[in-house]
Design brief:
The two termini are about 25 Å apart. The protein is built from four helices and six strands; from the N terminus they run βαβαββαβαβ. It has helices at about 15-25, 40-50, 85-90, 115-125; strands spanning about 5-10, 30, 70-80, 80-85, 100-105, 125-135. The protein is globular and about 40 Å long. The protein is α/β, with parallel strands linked by helices and about 140 residues long. Helix content is about 30%, strand content about 30%. β5 (about 100-105), α4 and β6 form a beta-alpha-beta unit. It has a single domain, classed as 3-Layer(aba) Sandwich (Rossmann fold). Strands 1, 2, 3, 4, 5 and 6 form a six-stranded mixed beta sheet that branches.
Length: about 140
């Protein structure tokens, strides 16, 4: 089974986590970038507000074909208790029939959107294999 870890990282912590996880699982890692870079102010004020509304952001087209993978692991930061907008964009790209697992990083290690994320993934016709909160202080470089 081929596994892809697709992630969005604003501060760099999720990148460290995702690349380590990819190494552990012998998986490919693919970083998602937003088309427009966010300032700290934009990320924490407007980005958090967009996350609360479950909005997506414009991302640069992927350089991988998601159809080539059996399992897709999504990793990203939590803003205002919910996935960052770029993570919602990742979920929107999921092809039907994939096994999907998610890891969310945050300062507190707690999120509140578990059922919403699970339902978005199931609506894409994918199977949902797990939801994990990761406290940023536990991420080792």
């Amino acid at each position: 089974m081929k596994t892809l870890i697709i992630y969005y990282s604003y501060s760099g912590k999720t990148k460290v986590f995702a690349e380590k996880k990819a190494h552990e699982l012998d998986a490919k890692a693919c970083q998602v970038m937003e088309k427009k870079a966010r300032s700290k102010f934009n990320a924490y004020v407007f980005g958090s507000h967009a996350a609360m509304r479950q909005n997506q952001s414009d991302i640069i087209p992927l350089d991988v074909d998601l159809m080539d993978y059996d399992t897709i692991i999504i990793a990203g930061p939590i803003w205002a208790g919910l996935p960052a907008p770029a993570v919602n964009s990742i979920i929107s790209l999921l092809p039907t029939g994939k096994e999907v697992e998610v890891y969310f990083t945050s300062g507190s290690g707690k999120s509140k959107g578990q059922e919403k994320v699970k339902n978005l993934i199931l609506e894409k016709g994918c199977s949902f294999s797990g939801y994990h909160d990761v406290k940023e202080s536990e991420i080792q470089a």
